[in-house]
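User: Can you help me understand a structure? I only have the sequence.
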Amino acid sequence: MIDATRNGSLKYYLFFSLYFSEGLMIAITTAVTAVYLRTQGVSIPLTTLIVGIVNIPWILKFVWGPIVDYFIKYGRKTFIIFGGILSITAMLLVSLVDPSISLIPFALLIFISHIGIGFVDVATDAWAIDVSTDKDRGKINGAMFSGQYSGWAIGAILLLYIGSTFGYSFAYLTNGILILLILIFPFFVKEIVKIKQRQKIASIAVKEFKNRSTQLVALFSPLVFMNEGMLSFIMPIFMKDGLGLEPVQIGLITAILPITLAIGSIIGGITTDKIGRKRALYIFLGLSIIFTASLIFVNNWWQLSINYGIIGILMGGHSTVSCALFMDVTNPRIGATQYGVFTGLGNLGLNGGGMATGTMVAMLGFSRTFLYAAWVFGPALLILYYIRMKKANRK
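Assistant: Let's start by predicting it. Here is the structure, written out as tokens:
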């Protein structure tokens, strides 16, 4: 067995690879499924609604987290493997379903695949909390998010190409096979289980969430991720309906965001470990407001590519710093539960904002929707100002 947690490079690769599988699921949903449903004649509001519904398991981390923590004596790796098998099985089955004939079973199978990845996600987060410290938490989050965004980028290009060339069923089949190959690595990684007893999750969680800073972080989380949801849901549709681009072009430009997100996450991880969480967030969020609002001036593919790339770097930066902040205030004894609540609320904002964009575009148009996507950072910055951080790392 490999003790990756004692080797810096292998530790970062472990969390990079696990989050890479999550990025593939983001690509298959926000890029492939969105374009696939539009080619089947599904309306924009219904398309974004379906994409939002199948992403609901990401919001339910407060359900998956306590399960992982309650059975902590079995380790985090057990649930990573379980979630991976569930997700892979659902992906293979969805490749057999035609959404033009069976839209509900099609959406249900993708929903189940996200439940599996939800377990992978909360177990991976808890494992990262177990082995990280204040000194490397930003860099570990950078590795995780760069993995997720790399998976999103590669998935958007590869899976959309496969879908448009060989049929979208092959895209879902390929996604399941790729996740299977990625999840082989954890089988060979040694996990040291530090806590052998079942945890009194409810009492510990209640005590933690009575803390004012913890409450403010919980309010901050959905607001800071709402912009990402709005843009990631609507941009493939904007490229198709607003700019008239072809599926392969959409895949290539869509990939710009996760590629730059990966770069931004590394920058954010290094930056926040040096200058602190709040100071880094002020910089990333302030600039994000400016460049998100400037999307209203975009009217061709190259302008979109440049602007989208800058937004990606900033988005990757603030996402990484935000999650490092969540880890700072999380009690390791209920790592999957408490951190799962924070990130689940973040996904609620991300998914909720994304689901609303279809209706917003239908009512307001793309430009006004982009302005609202910039506006949501205002309340997030206000809440951030009142958050007080502890410098000590609890173990």
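Now, to help you interpret it: The chain has a mean pLDDT of 86. The CA atoms of residues 277 and 325 lie 6 Å apart. Let me know which part you'd like to focus on.
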